[in-house]
Amino acid sequence: MTFFPKMTKSQRIGLLFVILILFIDMMLYSLLIPIVPYFTETLQPSSTMMGILFSSYAVAMLIATPIFGPISDRIGRRIMLLIGLIGLALSTILFAFSDSLALLITARFVQGLAAAATWPTALALLADLFPPKMRGAIMGIALTAISTGTLLGAPIGGWLFEASGHRTPFLVAAAFTVINLVLVYFFLKDESSRSESEKLQVGGFLRHPQVAFIAGVVLLAEISLCLLEPTLPVFLTEKLSITPATIGLLFAIMTLAYGLIAPVAGSLSSRVNPFTLMFVGIISLAVFMPFLALAETLWQSALAMALVGASVGFTLSPTLATLGEIIDRGGSGAYGTAYSLFNMFHGVGMVAGPLAGGILTDVLPASAAIIIVAASVFSFGILMYVMLRFKQNSLTRSAGKEMKM
């Protein structure tokens, strides 16, 4: 990409640390997955308690995100990133030595608190460092770091677990996190003092038509993606008689497609109307989701997974840079608060997606549930885009009348 030679030293260092932080955060998130059977066998938890274990991450993130994002606008990005990395290291060590379900849930909850500190702060740091024309592609790279961490976490965790037991994956991840913490402490410079203008009226910000559209798009994409995690493996196993390893490969294909398309969509958002890109992405997601239910072979399923993953990446990548541009127009510089709201939309989708999938598949076949969700995404996507255009045209007409008076 042509903008890399133009990056300053502070921009390169900041981007490198954001990539490392987001990568390690999502790697830790998925590291637990291959070790779940071990905990299930040794602790014998109920299905409800396992659900609480996995949802505790999103619950903690939803609680803490609106607190940590605005704080980073006041005290600076470096301090908040250090706090988040300390939390990640502590949660990972707690995972390694947990001998009860209560401790596992506590570790997962602390992990969610740490993510609430690192995610919005890391994205806000990129918005601080890069001008609007570069943000689209840069934010796409950040999303690629997230998807790469998600992609590699489970395989790394499984390999380390098989090599030397259930504690090793967590201890290795904790060591990696501590190294990252030390590097941030010594090499990421403090920003200049924060401005008093860096405050955001959250209520007014959320009522902004463009922000409301972004919130809706993020929710639809995240709900769709997270809904597939608990429902699709069972459906594909029954329909295609495939192994767990093959299911993991299919989800890896989806994550890889997400990571590859994100920088492309982010780069396009600086040249093409980003709201059009988001709309195209969400409609593509709705169109491709039914192919997951209709696929009759493994190759067809792999192609459908890739198209769904690419659609989600294409949808979400422009949202990050566009939120930053809206903050720029308001003149506040409160990127931490803005990206904390993005994190909240993401968290709501993580909670609502599996819940919706569970409810629908309790009363309907999985294939019918997927098609119904796709139709809902298609309908809501069109409705939100029409409402956005209507509100923007209304504001334009009102501004024109005021100029004539």
TrEMBL record:
It holds the Pfam family MFS_1. It is found in: Cell membrane. CDD domains: MFS_MdtG_SLC18_like. This is Arabinose ABC transporter permease. Gene3D superfamilies: MFS general substrate transporter like domains. Residues 14-393 form the Major facilitator superfamily (MFS) profile domain. The keyword Transport applies. It comes from Brevibacillus choshinensis. The keyword Membrane applies.
